[in-house]
């Protein structure tokens, strides 16, 4: 029971730190949300390549894998796995293979939300 509570607290803390960093970038810089998105995904890839992000995932669990940096982590991890399995071609296919289910789910649930509600442009 105590271990489960600590996992929740660690996930909350790590995820909160990542999201807080994003909010600071939005509030204190002139970076657009799109550039921050690319920065976070790229940071996840670089930190995974350096072997740092796995330690963050081990401590933070879902708090580290759900934010955008976690998407970069999944891309890099899939690419590394498929390079070992298929060679150089795996560098191009591994990230797609590793993240396909999450991307498909995002598209599907976004479509459902668009059907259920009336989306319109901000004015």
What's the short story on this structure?
This protein is an all-alpha fold. It is built from 6 helices and no strands. Helix 2 crosses helix 5 and helix 5 runs antiparallel to helix 6.
Your description of this structure?
The chain is mainly alpha-helical and 123 residues long. It has one domain (2-116). Helices cover 84% and strands 0% of the residues. Helix 5 (68-86) runs antiparallel to helix 6 (89-116).
The helix/strand order is HHHHHH
**Which regions contain 5 or more consecutive residues with pLDDT less than 50?**
none
Radius of gyration: 17 Å
Q: Portion of residues in helices? A: over 70%
What is the overall pLDDT average? Answer: 93
Query: Mind describing the biggest β-sheet?
Result: none
Helix run count: 6
Overall form: globular
Strand content: under 5%
Determine the N-to-C terminus distance: 49 Å
How does the helix and strand content classify structurally? Answer: mainly alpha
How many DSSP-defined strands? 0
Total domain units: 1
What order do the helices and strands come in, and which of them pair?
Blueprint: H1 2-28, H2 33-49, H3 53-60, H4 62-65, H5 68-86, H6 89-116
Helix pairs in contact: 2-5, 5-6
Keywords:
123 residues; mainly alpha
